[in-house]
Amino acid sequence: MRLPKFEHLQPESLEEALELLAEHGEQAKVIAGGTELLVSMKHGLLAPSYLVNLKEIPELNFIAYDGEGGLRIGALTKLATLIGSPVIQESFAVLSRAASLVAAPPLQQMGTLAGNLCLDTRCLYYNQSRFWRQARPRCYKTGGDTCHVVKGGNRCLAAYQGDVAPALIALGASVKIAKKGADRIVPLADLYTGKGERPLALQADEVLVEVQVAAEAARWGGDYQKLRYRGAMDFPLVGVAAVVSRDGLDTIARASLVLTAVSTAPILAEEAGRLLQGQELTDELVAQAAGAAYEVARPVNNIGSNPSYRRKMVRVLTKRAIRNAWVRE
Amino acid sequence: MAEHTLVGHRVPRIDSLDKATGQARYTADLTLPRMLYGKVLRSPHAHARILNIDASKAERLRGVKAVVTGRDTAGVRWGVFRYTRDQQLLTGDKVRYIGEDVAAVAAEDEETAMEALELIEVDYEVLPAVFGPLEAMQEGAPQIHDHAENNINIHVPIEVGDVEKGFKKSYHVREDRFVDSEYTYCQTEPYAVLVNCDLSGNLEIWTPNASPHTKAKALSNLLEMPLTKVKVRRICTGGAFGGRSDIFPGEFIAALMALKAARPVKLVYTREESFTSVRQAHSMIVDLKTGVRKDGTLLANEIKVIMDGGAYSSTGPIATSVPFLVWEETYRLPNVRFNGYRVYTNKPVRGMYRCHGRAFLGGLGMQLDMIAEELGIDPVEMRLRNALRTGDTQATGSKIISCGLSEALQQAAEKSGWKEKRGKLPFGKGIGMGANGMMVGFPMGIRGGSSAMIKFNEDGGATLISGVVDTGSGNDSMVVQIAADVLGLKMEDVNLVSADSEITPLDQGAYSQAAAFVSANAAMAAAIDAREQILNIASDMLDATVEELGLRDGYVYMKERPERNIWMGKAIRKALMDDTPIMGRGSYMPKIDQTREWVSNPKGQQAGTFSFGAVVAEVEVDAETGQVRVSNVTGAHDCGFAINPMAVEGQLEGSVASGGVGATLLEEHYWDGGQMLNASMLEYKVPLSVDMPQITPIIVESMDPEGPFGAKEAGLWGSMNMFQAIGNAIYDAVGVWIKDFPITPDKVLAALEERNRD
Amino acid sequence: MEKRLIHLSVNGDEYDVVVRPNQTLLEVLREDLELTGAKEGCGEGACGTCTVLLEGKPVRSCLTLAVEAQGKQIETVEGLASDGELHPVQKAFIEHGAIQCGFCTPAMILTTKAFLEENPNPSEGEARRAISGVVCRCTGYAKIVAAMMATAGEL
User: Fold this and answer.
1) What is the mean pLDDT of chain B?
2) Topology of domain C4-79, per CATH?
3) Is B106 helix (H, G, I), strand (E, B) or coil?
4) Chain B residue with Cα closest to C85
5) I need a surface site. Which of B7, B20, B619, C148 has the fewest CB within 10 A?
6) Strand ranges (E), B457-537
């Protein structure tokens, strides 16, 4: 499979990269690990005229932690580096666990944190070759006006299947987004539009440069549960991240549950978290919270396995994630 | 024969050095001077009439050297059998599945070829299509081929004994339906072909294949060229599993383009094309009715299977019969009726697969366990009671000359701790058994035999020329090991020339599990012939009788006085001087009934011998998610004799992946009508290293009287009985029968929920 | 699209190659340098047969741009044996029968080499995980894992 034509731009600093993006706008795409982008380009899903390569920008590749400022991770940090980081393993276990379940070790070696967070939504009718797609009318995600998954559907329902985002959202992470001459910091959850066609709230000239997690999160327990048919490689069919903190011995101070692969964006299961807050953990309470998570999951038949099964699994995985997170707290 | 220095030992394979160092060449690795790159235009419609193809713009594109369409084929049709010639390899009038070959381009580079494809205009009249065999058989269903009423492609009826009487006499009768969905070989090497032609009209072809002679004969027919001009060359093949035997449009199209452009053409398929436009495996709907005595003895079987064959016949008659044959090769069946239907649908073409018939064989093996439970018989006992034995005759008339099935059943049970575990493990853990017999070779007419030659160099080294084909399982190494052993040489002193339709003699290929029995027998015969010639010469030189002599380490020696010896090179040189050069010659044709035919006469000896095996699978089922993990597999296989035990074990281990974890639990295609939704290595789930259980192989040696050193086959060790072993283990673990393959977690969970509701 | 002259260091040999930006490292290795040990099994990063080592780490060369490999150390299976001596991983794969059709073998061997250099005494589970991104359709991985474990501690 061949890549379409493009010009390759190799900035040596973030400033230079932002300059290039400002100049080329929609015609440019940022390449980090390339594990998703190049596949999409081979399929003809994307055809940027310019690739702005961030791999050689050292200032985007770092992990920094201090007890007050919290955790800061450069966007270009490889998933493998993140997984191997002792501070993340010890204090933000949910994050290293989620990252360790992405694909397989060689892809963790190539893939970056920002690349994983900025994964495009996926669909069995979208992630296909040009030949394949030509056999049917264009769908919403490819610029048409139909959905092949939900007949008569009025919008794109492609699934967000990132593993790392739910863990970070559960930790309350923020992201720093830069463009030429300006930065903004937003909650990671706000990066996701919920629109299948265009799942990221990033402008063409913007780059996600840093992930930030508050220091207090280092004390919370967390877990990420992933359902997939094989022990490696696969995107999640369902993923659930849980982060809990304790108040005293038996009471849950705060709980955050985030689902992935069951909608067009990672979903914060707010009601589930609210049910847990200030309560003592019982089987009944865990079941209630899992039920609340189940309620907000909206899987459709677009990523393999059947959606009603996947939805049921939200319940099972949520229970397990809460239990494990609590033990680790 | 005396003690073996090589045969029976764990020896590294001769091909592994090249493969470990990157020197082994596969088709896509080859380039030739002035080579062109081919690309195929494929049908986006499941069923449509082609009204017109306008390729003129593509022909005019700079860098395009040949464009071919159905017009270039003179309407020639391909079929494995005379009565199945239903496929025009570059379609002319109609397209019958999404991905079918409509036109092709050869250009100076791949980009230009791809650009040219976009310039070919095809006018289609879209026709109603049908995607399931039951729908396709109904009155009024779209007719896919004019000749096939109700879209029935093949019907194999077999009846033995008195089935009605058998059921009447039965103490217990059970009926079940098992189904499965389509799956695929998914060899790691995508399909590729390179064709070279010269001005004398010689055609050379490199393509991953299981039988160069079969490919050459088909191409010679299709291109109307003499067989002597069509030369399929040896090339490394990245896995076959039954999926490299048939003739595919790719080699025909590349040949057409090479002839048209008078330049070499290479065509390399994408992974998606390899999924959709070569071959995949059948889905089936299987109805089973089984009657038994109180003690579990099988009295009557009625089996009806409907297979989705896709758009063309391929190896249809074989595919329709094999699951039944495997069943009759396992158990004594006094009264049995089989009706196999292979039905055309507007889906890609299906062929024979190493794990063919999971609903069929999985179904029968699971139904056997259901009956055993209803009668209170242990599943191992149930199998032992009905197992074929040496000297038995199978339902359709094949005699069993060696059979280690009972021993395999007993050993697999013993080594796996069956008695301590079956029915006694905690909820969620289970153990199950599967067993099967396997034909070693198919009736294949003149191509059912093999022959081989051995010549010598004056330094004592030898070259074995054999038609044997190695698609990855180690056949090349096997025949060298045998020849070297017989000749008292080291394996590195025996060169192999193999799998070249011009140079090497006829052979059935790496197909039908026959290489270790047929090809190896021929190689052994050639080596024995050469050995006798050497000993004859040496007996003069050493002044001894032939009987007094042995061959070892490149020397002929007197067995009683080993210090009296001569270097083999000397004997070879003397033979040359005497004008009696040593040339070993050997052949083997299995003793089968050559009048047997798949459809018209499915009776008589169908293979020279049969192999047998039993597996025990242990599983852990997560009752909340329905996920099944296979934790252990113990397999016992009667391979006759293990020529290279390491290679034999490797076949079981591979079978546990493809037949067990893959075909039983993971692998299936998703569809929207005729469009495959998961034609990719990411979405089609082949097992990964982390999905595999611990595997304990047990080799049972029944020492076949016909086999070389007693050998039969090992390629299908476990791949056809893993389905039932895992299905039965799941029942033992959580008490539900899943009758729909693959057994994915959603199905397990649904069955558990249903049981809890009841 | 501008062609560029890039410098590649492969198996210790230095090459100047003219490439287009849209050429992958796999294409350049196979087509320009005629190093065909790395295979294209899918072109999408899913099968792993295109694995080469970049700065000692296994990467998908089908998803690596050739221009990105400029100035980096690249190792392919062809470069593993030195002075006529096979690499211990190659030896172990041959001796343990870990090779059948051979199409995934270069990727498996390179992945093993990189893994064992980083983790010389792994558990079997760690070894399985290390190769979980490379598909083998023949061996069921059993003898590959056995070869990996046999080499552990030798590198």
Assistant:
1) 97
2) Ubiquitin-like (UB roll) (3.10.20)
3) strand
4) B21
5) B7
6) 462-466, 494-498
A296 vs B179: CA distance, rounded Å: 34
The CATH T-level fold of domain A1-56 is 3.30.43
Q: What is the identity of the amino acid at B542?
A: L
CATH architecture of A61-118+159-328: 2-Layer Sandwich (3.30)
Close Cβ partners of C85 (under 8 Å, ≥ 6 residues apart):
none
Instruction: Give chain B's domains with CATH numbers.
Output: 31-127+189-238+244-276 (3.90.1170.50), 280-443+595-757 (3.30.365.10), 444-588 (3.30.365.10)
CA dist C121 → C127, C147, C151 (Å): 9, 13, 9
Nearest residue on chain B to A136, alpha-carbon basis: B44
Cα B127 off chain centre by? 35
Rounded to an integer, what distance in angstroms lies between the CA atom of residue B232 and that of residue B206? 6
In sequence order, the 6+-apart residues with CB closer than 8 A to the CB of B757 are none
Residue A152 DSSP one-character state? T
Helix H segments across B307-378?
A: 316-328, 358-375
Please check whether residue B280 is in contact with residue B391, taking contact to mean a CB–CB distance below 8 angstroms: no
Question: Is the sign of the CA dihedral B504, B510, B512, B516 positive or negative?
Answer: positive
Which of A8, A109, A233 is closest, CB to CB, to C67?
A: A8
Of A55, A105, A106, the CB nearest to C68: A55
Of B625, B682, B750, the CB nearest to A313: B625
Q: What is the DSSP letter of B367?
A: H
C130 at the A interface (CB within 8 A)? yes
Check residue C2 and give its pLDDT. Answer: 81
Architecture of the structural domain at C88-151: Orthogonal Bundle (1.10)
Alpha carbons C96 and A246: distance in angstroms, whole number: 52
Written as six digits, the tokens of B579 are 């004008």
Strand partners, B585: B453
Sign of CA dihedral B1, B5, B7, B9: positive
Residue A163 and residue A240: Cα distance in Å, rounded? Answer: 9
Q: Which chain B residues touch A305 with a CB distance below 8 Å?
A: 744-746
Residue B93 CA, distance from chain mean position: 32
**Token duo for residue C6:** 């890039």
Q: What confidence category does residue C74 fall into, taking pLDDT thresholds of 50, 70 and 90?
A: very high
User: Tens digits of per-residue pLDDT, A113-164?
Assistant: 999 999 999 999 999 999 999 999 999 999 999 999 999 999 999 999 999 9
Q: How far apart are CA A9 and CA A17, in angstroms?
A: 9
- Give the angle subtended at the CA of B542 by the CAs of B539 and B546, to the nearest 5°: 25
Q: Is the pLDDT of residue B1 over 50?
A: no
Q: Could you tell me if B278 and B190 are in contact, meaning their C-beta atoms sit under 8 angstroms apart?
A: no
Q: Which of residues 57-116 of C touch B (CB under 8 A)?
A: 76-78, 80-81, 86, 90, 93-97, 99-106, 109
* Whether complex ipTM tops 0.95: yes
Query: In sequence order, which residues have a C-beta less than 8 Å from that of residue B753 and are 6 or more positions away?
Result: none
**Cis peptide preceding B742, ω within 30 of 0:** yes
Runs of H (alpha helix) within B224-315: 249-261, 271-276
- pLDDT at residue B556, rounded to an integer: 97
Identify the closest residue of chain C to B655 by CA–CA distance. Answer: C140
- Over range B402-418, report the average pLDDT: 98
Whether A182 contacts chain B with CB within 8 A = no
Q: Which residues does chain A have with pLDDT short of 70?
A: none
Residue A168: closest CA among A272, A43, A288, A260 = A260
Between the alpha carbon of residue B67 and those of residues A254, B95, B261, B423, B725, the distances in Å are: 68, 18, 9, 64, 51
CB contact under 8 A, A104 and C133: yes
pLDDT tens digits, one per residue of B149-204: 999 999 999 999 999 999 999 999 999 999 999 999 999 999 999 999 988 889 99
